């Protein structure tokens, strides 16, 4: 394994105890995907459009929209609604109005005269067959996954390279073509030093340049890209909890305490992770919760609270006193 593959492999080992990651690993090895209905496809289309237009800070709005039954824009309900009613349902979303327009256009394309659904459905079923094949997963599957992603991105309004992968992954049909969102690219920058600009992800060619690299490192590490995505997403989330600027490497707070690295060790506050800080006055190095960085004082020379450990407390097998 090369260095990049090793980093990915460590990420998975470290994150596989997180429930969402563990479930995804199980689903992708033993689980079978369900046949994609047009109702399920529509729901995921609505959510893909909303999530792409939504800043991560208001993801809770999207969460409750998705998880509070009944789903407000099922295909059946949507068909009975006026444009005004759709806009009303989406009014709390910052980009609710364009999404309402995209939905009207996409509904017409999918189920109106052009009947795009009659082309999409057989492709989804081919993905399902490949996904549930007993000899899967197989790296060759990415070819069909990419082809169907292109089909969606080319014909659906508001669906770009990221949203098309998001939609297919949500339907449980794909394992190699993943959505590269800002949390995942943040993780890649932090841990592999890949600088992926936000703009480049809107362009299909550069999107696939980065996705090819991710797939190749994952293959070398023996990790499915969709599992990597879930793990990096969780870690990216941990990294961005609290003030994101204050957890960037090199950030220096008003007391001269500098962020050295992210450790992935659990912190002492809810949902927090330990960062290694260094004191620019005396050189003391210690651990701190991400959320405390902005006001941290040096435990050595400024009377700050004691630092958090920078290593997991693993009992030493040579210690006879145990
Ligand atoms: Zn100090």
What do you see in this structure?
It is built from 13 helices and three strands; from the N terminus they run H-H-H-H-H-H-H-H-H-H-H-H-H-E-E-E. It has 322 residues and is mainly alpha-helical. The protein folds into two domains: 234 residues; 73 residues, no CATH class. A hairpin with a 5-residue loop joins strand 2 and strand 3. The model has no long low-confidence stretch (mean pLDDT 88). Bound molecules: zinc ion (ZN). Zinc ion (ZN) binds next to loops.
What ligand molecules are bound, each kind once? zinc ion
Shape: globular
The domain count comes to 2
Count of β-strands: 3
Indicate the structural class. Answer: mainly alpha
What is the chains' assembly state? single chain
Determine the fraction of residues in helical runs and give it as a percent range: 40-55%
Average predicted local confidence, pLDDT: 88
Spatial order of the strands forming the largest sheet: 1-2-3
In what range is the share of β-strand residues?
A: 5-15%
């Amino acid at each position: 394994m090369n260095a990049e593959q090793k980093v990915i492999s460590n990420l998975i080992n470290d994150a596989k105890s997180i429930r969402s990651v563990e479930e995804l690993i199980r689903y992708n090895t033993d689980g079978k995907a369900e046949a994609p209905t047009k109702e399920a496809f529509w729901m995921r289309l609505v959510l893909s459009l909303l999530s792409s237009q939504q800043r991560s800070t208001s993801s809770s709005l999207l969460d409750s929209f998705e998880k509070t039954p009944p789903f407000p824009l099922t295909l059946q309900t949507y068909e009975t609604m006026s444009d005004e009613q759709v806009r009303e349902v989406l009014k709390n979303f910052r980009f609710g109005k364009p999404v309402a327009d995209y939905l009207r256009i996409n509904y017409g394309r999918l189920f109106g005269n052009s009947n795009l659904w009659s082309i999409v459905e057989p492709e989804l079923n081919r993905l399902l067959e490949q996904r549930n094949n007993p000899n899967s997963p197989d790296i060759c599957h990415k070819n069909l996954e990419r082809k169907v992603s292109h089909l969606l991105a080319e014909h659906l309004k508001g669906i770009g390279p990221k949203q098309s992968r998001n939609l297919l992954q949500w339907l449980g049909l794909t394992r190699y073509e993943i959505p590269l969102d800002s949390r995942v690219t943040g993780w890649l920058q932090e841990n592999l030093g890949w600088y992926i600009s936000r703009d480049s992800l809107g362009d299909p060619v550069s999107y696939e340049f980065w996705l090819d690299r991710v797939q190749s490192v994952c293959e070398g590490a023996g990790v499915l890209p969709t599992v990597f995505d879930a793990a990096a997403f969780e870690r990216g989330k941990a990294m961005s909890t609290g003030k994101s600027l204050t957890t960037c490497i090199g950030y220096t707070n008003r007391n001269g305490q500098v962020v050295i690295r992210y450790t992935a060790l659990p912190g002492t506050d809810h949902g927090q992770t330990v960062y290694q800080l260094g004191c620019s006055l005396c050189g003391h190095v210690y651990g701190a919760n991400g959320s405390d960085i902005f006001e941290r004082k040096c435990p050595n020379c400024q009377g700050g609270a004691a630092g958090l450990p920078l290593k997991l407390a693993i009992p030493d097998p040579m210690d006879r006193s145990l």
